[in-house]
Amino acid sequence: MLRPSAAKLLFALGLLGLATPGCAAYRVGNETLYAPDVTTVYVPMIESDSFRRDLGERLTEAVIKEIELKTPYKVVGTPDADSVLVAKLQGERKLLEFENQNDDPRALEYALTANVTWLNRRRQPLAPMNAIPLPADLVSITQTATMLPEPGQSDASAQQQAIQRLAEQIVATMEEPW
């Protein structure tokens, strides 16, 4: 058991060791999750192959909000940024999960799929390496939401939930691999 004065001395030395710059550059907090050489991100309008209106615009807005909220990056409106996050909605589908005895839908699954490319200023991919072999500059992401029509949930609310989840997953791909 250390005496109180010895414990205070060890604590003070520990703080001094943390405050003294060393040979390596250490980062702490959520900054360690993101690329240190990127400060700004340009997100062009997300294109959509869907016949539904405004899906690309809604996903673009959700992605920009997620980047601003959860990353140290600043979203800018010019392609001269440190990086460019390009996404394209490849598809959407609605699948029947459960039905009642009268063949009325009780639960539907709404799915959105997007291809995402994150490029640096030199237009080289910044996305982390995947365990599944994919082209180096392309990451395909699918996100789903369950729609329950009987309690009154609409297509629009299921779409918004899937868009929000997809935006969160797109921004999560911007983290550096462990």
TrEMBL record:
GO BP term, example: Gram-negative-bacterium-type cell outer membrane assembly
Gene Ontology CC entries for this record: outer membrane
Record's signal peptide: 1-24
InterPro entries xrefs: LPS_assembly_LptE
Metal-binding among keywords: no
Superkingdom of origin organism: Bacteria
Keyword hit for DNA-binding: no
Keywords: Signal
Protein name: LPS-assembly lipoprotein LptE
Organism encoding this protein: Lacipirellula parvula
Source lineage: Bacteria, Pseudomonadati, Planctomycetota, Planctomycetia, Pirellulales
